[in-house]
Design a protein that fits this description.
This protein is α/β, with parallel strands linked by helices and about 260 residues long. It has a domain of about 160 residues: Lysozyme-like, CATH 3.40.80. The protein has 6 helices and 7 strands. A 7-stranded mixed beta sheet has the order 1-4-3-5-2-6-7. Strand 3 and strand 4 form a beta hairpin. The radius of gyration is 42 Å and the shape is elongated.
Length: about 260
């Protein structure tokens, strides 16, 4: 007879030993599982932090953009400080009924040039005499020229502004650069030695404010004065001294004509 002998491991037959093996397996696998969960949670936290940081950054940029845009819009429309009314005498009121000369201005300008008419006898101190003076200056000009006086406006010692070419037409000074972006305002009289009156200066400021209100002049405009070297090296000196203390003062433009 053949005797078959089966060898069975005592560990497999012993329930206690089987439990020990299971405990060991669980003990080995549990730390690995816990590590995986912890790693996943850390990744989720890092990812969440990145998303929040991005949202906060975009929000900050948006707020900055709105703030800067609002400030620039305010500055662009900021009116010139004014304490006096603007007194305008239109072309028809001083005797000229024809349309102004020059090319049309279709945009707001950012430059104002101030000069004097140059004749001592032109200076006028009341509305009636200034209207006559403007009409005489214009008549003398057109006798030797084929077009209007080259100024956009004239301002008299009486504190009134006289429309010559106005806001909608270019000035007629060929020797002055950037004509399509410039208003030329003439002070009636000669201001090489004598300063303009306070009424003229106040009316000039009122002109700035009114031009900005009408959207004909940008609030960030510059003020320049003209010195005609063909007259003298000190031409307009008293006028220049007065203008140079204004907020938007820029420079002196020297010409010869």
């Amino acid at each position: 007879a053949i005797i078959t002998t089966k060898t069975t491991s005592s560990n497999l037959l012993n329930p206690a030993s089987k439990n020990s093996i299971n405990d060991i397996e669980r003990g080995e696998k549990a730390p690995l599982l816990q590590n995986d969960v912890a790693t996943s949670m850390r990744k989720n936290k890092i990812g969440t932090g990145r998303i929040n940081f991005g949202v906060i950054g975009l929000g900050f940029l948006l707020i900055c953009g709105v703030t800067i845009g609002t400030y620039l819009l305010f500055e662009q429309n900021r009116p010139w400080p004014i304490m006096f009314p603007f007194e305008l005498i239109e072309r028809q009121s001083w005797g000229e009924h024809r349309l102004p000369s020059g090319r049309s201005l279709n945009q707001s300008v950012d430059n104002v040039i101030i000069m004097h008419t140059g004749n001592v006898g032109d200076r006028c101190t009341n509305l009636e005499s200034c209207i006559k003076t403007v009409a005489n200056i214009h008549q003398q000009w057109i006798q030797t020229n084929e077009h209007d006086l080259p100024y956009n406006f004239l301002i008299g010692d009486c504190g009134y502004t006289y429309e010559i070419r106005g806001w909608n037409y270019e000035n007629g000074f060929e020797h002055i650069p950037n004509r399509e972006n410039t208003f030329v305002v003439g002070f009636i009289g000669n201001f090489t030695e004598n300063s303009p009156s306070q009424r003229q200066l106040d009316e000039l400021k009122a002109f700035f404010s009114e031009s900005i209100r009408r959207k004909k002049l940008l609030s960030k405009f510059t003020i320049n004065a003209v010195r005609n070297l063909a007259v003298s090296k000190d031409d307009s000196q008293a006028l220049i001294n007065t203008l140079s203390i204004l907020e938007n003062w820029s420079s002196i433009i020297t010409v010869t004509f």
